[in-house]
Amino acid sequence: MTDYFIKYQREIIESSIWILIFLILKFICTKAIRKIGALKGINKIRTRLIVKYISTAFFLLISIALIIIWGINFNSLIPILSSVFAILGIALFANWSILSNVTSGVILFFSFPYKIGDKIRIIDKDIGTEETYLIEDIKAYHIHLSNTRGELLTYPNSLILQKPIVLVETYEKSLADK
Asked: What pLDDT shows up at residue 140?
């Protein structure tokens, strides 16, 4: 066992340093995302979802770093990686709308000026009405909107970024009026 630590001392030290760096960065990013969520009054469930996305990205980065540090023979990994990337490519191409909605969900977390409880109007000819909708919930893939008749409209996040939206009434203003 001691021979193992002596033989791979450099790799163990580098791995420990990189894992520590990634854990510190993940901690800082998690704190920043939670603070942004609290400052903007974003739902805690949405904040946790974004933290989960960031954690997954950090896990992938640390995995790549460890593979490089330990000097995995890439010639033996090429057939495996090419198969994995081919399957991922086909899966992501087949589900590009899901991927674009998830990406839009992350963008909406940081830059969407409207919150749950706000009343909005979406300028979209496909909806066909100039109706006012209440934002019920903002999910990873879509937004739940309800109209005055109590009907639920599930609207994709990618379309929310593409269509003009008119803010009719904020949640805070509706509370103040009551």
From this structure: 80
